[in-house]
């Protein structure tokens, strides 16, 4: 309405004044509204055009065609206006593939109550100005690339009810201000990178119905206040790192709860009585946590339940029969729960059940027949239990919808009838490791959806051994990816029809099947095959040339057959090969030189053949090869030095060949090597001194060769060596006494030329000491003529140096440089003041018992650390003197490097390398820091290397005396450096112990140090053992959970004795981690080592070198299992 269209109102003279005033007010309002509407719709248009201008990509040109001046704003695509004010109240431009960011002008859409831009590619931070959209009740920014923190201003939108921020790149914590949005009913921020805890203030959301924070990095316990929100219907916190226990009787205050999703967390405790009042609950998902105890029978009272998932926990006891009362149940997942007893027959009542998974328990007895009457079932898994009985003959009629039947690893028997082939929807059939008999039905070929078939380790036979007709029939299954028929007495020949499998076929196992004849040429048609395993059969003839067609092959296992001819060059064209197993055949000729080009190769087994060439030096190019076993052939010539390039190798076996010449010294560089076997060859010369570098070696067999010379005592450093054999050689001289040699038997050294000495248990003759020729008088004269002048010269030089040093000290008493400088020749007090902002608190890194550490930056920008000693106490002076004395000449990559010093009567400081990643203490015990398994292992190896140097690599052993996480500093590469030698001790003059009154940190002190003040290198080993435990458990030895009766060491020892693993830091090992078993085993090895290091008696503790070797071995095993 415009002003010119308003009508003049003629009022009677006698009209009441009140009426007149009213009409005037109405007229003025109409005028104001008309003018305001024109202004504000323009504002909305400008805001939307600003949004359009920030869209950098519009794949469908929706905005460029629709959002134009010629079209009214309210008619633009995705725009909705109110009928009253003609203002934009809703914006929906979802799923248009738009790219760009959100400008602050969007905040001018002041009437907006709904915005949906989900399913696009917007990025950047959300502008703070959006807080002005006070009418907003619905926000959907899901499936974009927004970053930064979740905006805190969202909590200041008073009308917000629905908030969807799923699948973005938000980081940081959930702001507690968000929980001020008291009208919020539905909040979903899953699939982001949120971290930290969920604040207790979440309990302020009194109207919340749905909470979804799954797939983030949240930690800590679930706040109890969350369980006070009576309106809650769904809680989804799946796949975080939440810990702690659940409250009792959850649904007492959550009567409307319909779904609780807590899988893939670190929650613990018993679930007994937690959910007994949840009568509305439909979904209960608790899988992959650390819940324990029995599954309560009250679970049968949750009659609305449709999904129950509690697998991968540590339950005990039987499966509650009351579950049979859950008549609405569709999914029941209780795999890996350690349950025992029978499968309840009451399960047959679950006539809506679609998925039943009881994998990996200890269930026994027959599978109840009633289960096979649940016609709705699509997936059944009883794999890895102790179930018996047979498959019912009419299974096809009872389970017409079955897609997966997984019964492997039980004690089932009987025959597999053709009726199973009538399960037309079947895609997975697992019957392996049972006691089935009879022939394999050829009718299996009618299962056109079949993808996975495993019938290994049964007693199946083929109905036509000469043709393998069942195998031919399976080629009709065009979706088949995996087939294992291993360990069945099938006999017969592999048919040419093997080549008819589809391009989906990837894995074929036929081990120990009694198959004979040639490998058919047609096998080369299987171009998608990843693994071919035909070992332990009776194949003959050469390898077919067509194998080169297996271009994706990663594993080839043909061991224990009678295959002959040469190893074909065309295998080298298979660029993805990781494992080649051709042992125990009749191959002859040479190893193709081109094998050195298969850089993906990890394992090569060619032992027990008739190969008769020289060793191909090209194999030295296989830098990632772990296992090389070519024993029991007829290889000749020298072992090429290139074998020393196999730096990753764990096992090399060249035994029982005809190698000659000397052992290449390069083999001493294989520091990961665990086993080396060179027995039964024609090798000669000495045992290389470089073998003393093989610190991980556990087995060394050099027997039955022609080695000469002595057994070097340097081999005593091989502390991991468990088996050593040099028998039947030409060795002579003294047998080493120490290290592992104290445990070897006579058989290790028998039949040599002239060995002597060694441990008495070997019964070798004692070694004769021969006197040198010539008179004693002549020798004394020679000593006098040569040594006396040299001694006089040394004394003269020493006196001159002392005089020069004294003069220099007098000339400069204010600043004395105690260390060779690296960055600068001299660092003055004034320079330190400037570099540390006058030792300001902002530069303070750490405060210790005898001083403080500051970060300094030189003029050229180079950072360094300054350790300023507190001179108010005698301890500060002594600490400075101790560090100067110890660090004056020490140089090692795992010690914090001292650059220089600054010293005058009133100020003493050391200038150190700056460690940008702080201390191990911070990384272990801060919520915002995290170290993975390998990082922790590497840091411990670094510390052990430093101790090995301090104890064994310096002229006088150095005892650190205060080993703890705070004294392990980390550089930019996360390499560990040992620091703080303020209370360390030098053991001089052959000392092995010393006395001290200085106490180290409580919890890490060795018993003899704490009670008697006795210091030795073994004290450091005790502290190192405690450090190992703390690093992998994240429990301080002073943790409040420990007391006088049970400390950290007792706790770990107790757990190991009970085969428990709960003590390992939960951040390292989760059930969803595919490497969890490997990590557990390596962590247990670390804990066993820690206990050996921290033995009560110093004599029983390992030394630093032994601990270092043990850790390196654990790392090798860890990395080997990762391949």
From TrEMBL:
SMART domains: LRR_SD22, LRR_TYP, S_TKc. This is non-specific serine/threonine protein kinase. The chain crosses the membrane at residues 782-804. One of its GO terms (cellular component) is plasma membrane. InterPro entries: Kinase-like_dom_sf, Leu-rich_rpt, Leu-rich_rpt_typical-subtyp, LRR_dom_sf, LRR_N_plant-typ, LRR_R13L4/SHOC2-like, Plant_receptor-like_S/T_kinase, Prot_kinase_dom. The lineage of its organism: Eukaryota, Viridiplantae, Streptophyta, Embryophyta, Tracheophyta. PROSITE patterns: LRR, PROTEIN_KINASE_DOM, PROTEIN_KINASE_ST. Keywords: ATP-binding, Cell membrane, Glycoprotein, Kinase, Leucine-rich repeat, Membrane, Nucleotide-binding, Phosphoprotein, Receptor, Repeat, Serine/threonine-protein kinase, Signal, Transferase, Transmembrane, Transmembrane helix. Residues 839-1119 form the Protein kinase domain. Its main location: membrane. GO terms for biological process: defense response; response to other organism. The gene is LOC113726146. It is a single-pass membrane protein; Single-pass type I membrane protein. It holds the Pfam family LRRNT_2. It catalyses: L-seryl-[protein] + ATP = O-phospho-L-seryl-[protein] + ADP + H(+); L-threonyl-[protein] + ATP = O-phospho-L-threonyl-[protein] + ADP + H(+). Its EC number is 2.7.11.1. It is found in: Cell membrane; Membrane. One of its GO terms (molecular function) is ATP binding. Belongs to the protein kinase superfamily. Ser/Thr protein kinase family. It is an enzyme of class 2 (transferase).
């Amino acid at each position: 309405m415009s002003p010119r269209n308003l009508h003049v109102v003629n009022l009677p003279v006698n009209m009441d004044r009140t009426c007149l005033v009213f009409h005037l007010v109405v007229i003025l309002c109409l005028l104001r509204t008309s003018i305001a509407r024109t202004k504000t719709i323009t504002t909305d248009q400008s805001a939307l055009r600003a949004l359009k201008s920030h869209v950098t990509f519009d794949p469908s040109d929706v905005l460029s065609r629709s959002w134009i001046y010629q079209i009214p704003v309210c008619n633009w695509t995705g725009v909705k206006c109110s009928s009253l004010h003609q203002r934009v109240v809703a914006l929906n431009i979802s799923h248009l593939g738009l790219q760009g960011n959100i400008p602050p002008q969007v905040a001018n859409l002041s009437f907006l109550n709904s915005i949906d831009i989900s399913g696009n590619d917007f990025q950047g931070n959300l502008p703070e100005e959006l807080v002005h959209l006070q009418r907003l009740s619905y926000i959907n920014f899901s499936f974009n690339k927004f970053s930064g923190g979740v905006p805190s201003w969202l909590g200041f939108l008073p009308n917000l009810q629905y908030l969807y921020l799923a699948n973005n790149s938000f980081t940081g914590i959930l702001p507690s201000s968000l929980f001020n949005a008291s009208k919020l009913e539905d909040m979903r921020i899953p699939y982001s990178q949120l971290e930290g805890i969920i604040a207790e203030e979440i309990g302020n959301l009194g109207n919340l119905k749905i909470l979804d924070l799954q797939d983030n990095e949240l930690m800590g316990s679930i706040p109890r206040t969350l369980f006070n929100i009576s309106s809650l219907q769904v809680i989804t916190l799946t796949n975080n790192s939440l810990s702690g226990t659940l409250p009792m009787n959850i649904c007492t205050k959550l009567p409307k709860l319909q779904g609780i999703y807590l899988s893939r967390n670190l929650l613990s405790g018993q679930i007994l009585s937690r959910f007994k009042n949840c009568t509305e609950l439909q979904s209960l998902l608790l899988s992959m946590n650390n819940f324990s105890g029995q599954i309560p029978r009250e679970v049968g009272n949750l009659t609305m339940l449709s999904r129950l998932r509690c697998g991968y926990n540590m339950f005990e006891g039987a499966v509650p029969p009351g579950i049979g009362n859950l008549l609405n149940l569709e999914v029941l997942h209780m795999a890996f729960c350690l349950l025992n007893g029978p499968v309840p027959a009451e399960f047959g009542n679950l006539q809506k059940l679609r998925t039943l998974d009881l994998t990996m328990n200890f269930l026994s007895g027959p599978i109840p027949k009633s289960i096979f009457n649940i016609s709705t079932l699509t997936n059944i898994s009883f794999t890895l239990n102790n179930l018996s009985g047979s498959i019912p003959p009419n299974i096809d009629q009872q389970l017409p919808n079955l897609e997966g039947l997984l019964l492997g690893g039980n004690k089932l028997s009987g025959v597999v009838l053709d009726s199973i082939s009538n399960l037309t929807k079947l895609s997975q059939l697992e019957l392996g490791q049972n006691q089935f008999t009879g022939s394999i039905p050829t009718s299996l070929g009618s299962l056109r959806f079949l993808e996975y078939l495993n019938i290994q380790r049964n007693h199946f036979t083929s109905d036509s051994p000469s043709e393998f007709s069942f195998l031919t029939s399976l080629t009709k299954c065009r979706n088949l990816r995996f087939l294992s028929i291993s360990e069945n007495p099938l006999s017969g020949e592999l048919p040419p029809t093997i080549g008819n499998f589809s391009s989906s076929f990837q894995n074929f196992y036929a081990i120990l099947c009694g198959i004979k004849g040639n490998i058919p040429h047609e096998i080369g048609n299987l171009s998608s095959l990843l693994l071919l395993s035909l070992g332990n059969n009776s194949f003959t003839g050469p390898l077919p040339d067509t194998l080169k067609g297996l271009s994706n092959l990663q594993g080839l296992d043909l061991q224990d057959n009678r295959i002959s001819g040469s190893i074909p060059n065309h295998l080298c064209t298979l660029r993805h090969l990781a494992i080649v197993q051709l042992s125990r055949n009749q191959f002859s000729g040479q190893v193709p030189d081109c094998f050195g080009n298969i850089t993906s190769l990890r394992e090569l087994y060619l032992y027990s053949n008739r190969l008769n060439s020289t060793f191909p030096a090209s194999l030295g190019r296989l830098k990632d090869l772990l296992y090389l076993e070519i024993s029991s052939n007829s290889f000749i010539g020298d072992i090429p030095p290139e074998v020393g390039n196999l730096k990753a190798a764990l096992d090399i076996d060249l035994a029982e060949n005809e190698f000659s010449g000397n052992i290449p010294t390069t083999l001493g560089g294989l520091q990961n090597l665990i086993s080396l076997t060179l027995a039964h060859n024609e090798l000669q010369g000495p045992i290389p001194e470089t073998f003393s570098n093989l610190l991980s070696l556990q087995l060394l067999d050099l027997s039955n060769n022609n080695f000469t010379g002595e057994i070097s005592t340097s081999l005593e450093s091989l502390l991991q060596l468990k088996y050593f054999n040099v028998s039947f050689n030409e060795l002579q001289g003294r047998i080493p006494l120490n290290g592992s040699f104290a445990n070897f038997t006579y058989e290790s050294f028998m039949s040599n030329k002239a060995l002597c000495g060694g441990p008495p248990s070997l019964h070798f003759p004692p070694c004769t000491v021969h006197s040198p020729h010539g008179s004693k008088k002549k020798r004394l004269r020679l000593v006098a003529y040569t040594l006396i002048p040299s001694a006089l010269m040394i004394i003269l030089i020493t006196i001159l140096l002392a005089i020069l040093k004294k003069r220099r000290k007098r000339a400069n008493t204010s600043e004395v440089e105690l260390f060779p400088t690296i960055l600068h020749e001299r660092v003055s007090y004034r320079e330190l003041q400037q570099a540390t902002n006058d030792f300001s608190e902002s530069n303070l890194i750490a405060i210790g018992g005898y001083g403080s550490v500051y970060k300094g930056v030189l003029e050229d920008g180079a950072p360094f650390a300054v350790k300023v000693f507190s001179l108010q106490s005698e301890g500060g002076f002594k600490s400075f003197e101790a560090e100067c004395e110890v660090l004056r000449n020490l140089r090692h990559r795992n010690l914090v490097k001292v650059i220089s010093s600054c010293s005058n009567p009133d100020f003493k400081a050391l200038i150190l390398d700056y460690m940008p990643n702080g201390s191990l203490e911070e990384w272990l015990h801060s919520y915002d820091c995290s170290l993975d398994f390998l990082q922790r292992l590497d840091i411990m190896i670094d510390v052990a290397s430093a101790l090995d140097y301090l104890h064994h690599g310096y002229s006088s052993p150095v005892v650190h005396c205060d080993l703890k996480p705070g004294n392990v500093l980390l550089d930019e590469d996360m390499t560990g450096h040992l620091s703080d030698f303020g209370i360390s001790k030098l053991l001089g003059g052959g000392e092995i112990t010393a006395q001290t009154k200085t106490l180290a940190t409580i919890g890490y002190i060795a018993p003899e140090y704490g009670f008697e003040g006795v210091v030795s290198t073994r004290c450091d080993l005790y502290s190192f053992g405690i450090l190992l435990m703390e690093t992998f458990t994240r429990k301080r030895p002073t943790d409040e959970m420990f007391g006088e009766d049970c400390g950290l060491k007792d706790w770990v020892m107790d757990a190991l004795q009970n085969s428990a693993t709960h003590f390992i830091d939960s951040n390292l090992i989760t059930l969803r981690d595919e490497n969890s078993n490997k990590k557990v085993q390596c962590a247990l090895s670390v804990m066993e080592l820690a206990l050996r290091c921290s033995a009560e008696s110093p004599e029983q503790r390992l030394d630093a070198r032994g601990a270092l070797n043990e850790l390196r071995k654990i790392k090798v095993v860890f990395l080997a299992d990762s391949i």
